[in-house]
Amino acid sequence: MAIVVSFVIEMRRRLPIRPQRHHSLTTASAQLSLVEHALCPLDSAESLRPNFTFETSYFFTDRSRNRKQATVRIGGLDGLSAHDELYLWGLLALALSQPEPCAEFMATPYFCLRRLGLVDETKKGGREFELFRAALKRLAGIRYQSDFFYDPIRGEHRAVSFGFLSYSLPLGDDSNRAWRFAWDSIFFELARATGGALRFDLSRYLQLSPAARRLYLFLKKLFWRADQTPPLDLRHVAVNVLGFCPTLETTRLRQKLTHCVEQLVSADIVRLPQDVADPSRLFQKQSKGRYVFRLVRGPQFDSQGNEHRAEPADSPLYEPLTSIGLDDRTIARVMSHYSPRQIEQWADITLAAMERNRAGFFKRSPQAYFIDNLKAAKDSRRTPPDWWRELRKQELAKEREQERQKAHVFRSEDDAFEEYLHDEAREAFDRVMRQLIDDLQKTGRAATDCEEQARQFTRMHFLNRFRQEHPEWGNDGLTRLGNSLNIPH
C-alpha cells in the first residue's frame, strides 16, 4: 500500500496542472497615497541596484487649505523595478478580494499569475514564474518612509514607516504547497481602508508602458474630483510622479510625457482639451523651462471591467485542493461548508505530508485524510499534528532570520525614535507639545505656525531624551541603509 501511495504522489507531482475554467481579475487595487509619486526611477540601471535609495516628493493640501510638500524616501535591499508595481497591486487586489481579507494570504504562484492574466492554460510561463519570484524578493526588501502620509482611518497626515510584504516560499519549484504572503500590518491597514484604496481596470493597465501606468493611476485619483485636471507641472509629473531622470532637459521630458499621454488617448482613457489638436501641442509655457498641461477624462476612464461570478477555480484554495486529488464538485462543497482558514491549514498539512513521502502515512488516501481532519477540526475535535507544527516552527525560524537580516540593514535610530514617540513617550510628548502651543499662541502667532514650531521643538527635546535613555543607538561608526532613509521633520 505504501508503494502505491508513493507512486501516485510522485506521478501527481510530474503531471501538468489540468486545464481549469477560470477568470482573470478585471480590477486591481492601489494604495491611494502611493500613486502620488514614483516608487523608483524608471531607468532600471538606477533602480535595480543593491541597497538602493530613492527620494521623491509630492504636494498636498492640509486642513487649513495650505499647500504643502511631502518628502518620501524608499530603500530596497535588491532594488526595485517599475514593472514590480504590477505584482504589488495585483497581489494586493487578490488579498482584498478574498471572503475574509487579512494580512496573511496563501496561494500558489500559478494561481496568482493566471488571475493577473500573465499565464493561462496555453502559456504555462516558466519565465513568468522566475520574474514573479524575483519581483517578490525585491518587494519584500523595500522600506518606505514619508513625513506627511495621509492616513484615511484617522483622517490626518502622519509620519509613517512601513514595508510592503514578507513571504515564505517552498524552495523546490516542484512543490504543490501554496506560497505564503504576509503584508506589513500598517501598509495593509492603509490599503484596505475606505478612502485608502484606488480601484482600476487591470486589463487596460497591462496594455500600458510602466510610465503610462503610473500616469493612469495618478490621473485616476485626480479625476475623482473633476472631469478635467488642474494645470499640471510638466517637470513635477515627469520626474516625481512618473520617475524619469531629473537631469533630463525639459524638451526630452516633454517628449517622454507626450508618449505616455498618447497611450492613454489611444485607449480612450483621457481626452485632450478642445483647443489642443494633438498631444505634442499639449504643453503651455509659463516661464523659461516651465510648462503646464491639462487633460480631460476619457470615455473609457471609469471602466472597471466586467466582474464575473466567482467560481471555485477563482479561489486560491482551488489548486492546493486539486493537488490533493479532490474533484471540482467536492471542492465546491468543501468551500461552502468550511472556513477558508481551516481549508488553508489542513490543505497545507496534507500537501506537506504528501511531499514528505512517508511510507504508509495515509491509511486510505490523501483525500480521505484531508476531509476527515477538516470535519474534525470544524467540530473542534482535531488540532494540527505535532510534526506539522515542528515543520512550521522551522519555516517561521527561517522567516524570522530573514526579518532580522532585513532589520539589521534597515533598522535606524529614526525608526526606533518613532516607536519611542508612539509608545513610551506618547503621553509626555502630547503634554509638552500642548504646553508649547499655548505658550507660542500667547505671542500672537498664527495657530498653524505655533503648532508646527511646537512640534519641531518637542521632537528635538524628546530626541535628546531618547538618546539619553537609549544609549545603544549612539553612533557606532557604521553606515547602514536605514540611516540614509531618515527624513527630517
Q: How does this model look, in words?
A:
With 489 residues, this protein is an alpha+beta fold. The chain folds into 3 domains: 109 residues, no CATH class; 271 residues, no CATH class; 74 residues, no CATH class. The strands form 5 sheets. The chain has a 4-stranded antiparallel sheet with strand order 2-3-5-6. A 3-stranded antiparallel sheet has the order 4-8-7, with helices on both faces. Helix 8 crosses helix 10, helix 11 packs across helix 13 and helix 13 packs antiparallel against helix 14. It starts with a helix and ends in a 5-residue tail after the last helix.
What is shown here, in short?
This protein is an alpha+beta fold.
Core attributes:
19 helices, four-stranded antiparallel sheet, 14 strands, 489 residues, alpha+beta, three-stranded antiparallel sheet, disordered N terminus
Shape: globular
Mean pLDDT: 80
Number of helices: 19
What gyration radius follows from the Cα positions, in whole Å? 26 Å
How would you classify the helix and strand content by structural class? alpha+beta
Q: What is the rounded distance between the termini? A: 68 Å
Number of domains: 3
Largest sheet features: 4 strands, antiparallel
Helix content: 40-55%
SSE layout and pairing:
Blueprint: H1 2-14, E1 27-31, H2 44-47, E2 52-61, E3 67-76, H3 84-96, E4 104-107, H4 109-115, H5 126-140, E5 142-151, E6 156-162, E7 165-168, E8 179-183, H6 185-192, E9 197-201, H7 202-206, H8 210-222, E10 232-233, H9 234-241, H10 250-266, E11 270-271, E12 284-287, E13 290-293, E14 296-297, H11 318-324, H12 328-337, H13 340-356, H14 366-378, H15 386-410, H16 413-422, H17 426-441, H18 447-469, H19 481-484
Antiparallel strand pairs: 1-9, 2-3, 3-5, 4-8, 5-6, 7-8, 10-13, 11-14, 12-13
Helix pairs in contact: 8-10, 9-10, 11-13, 13-14, 17-18
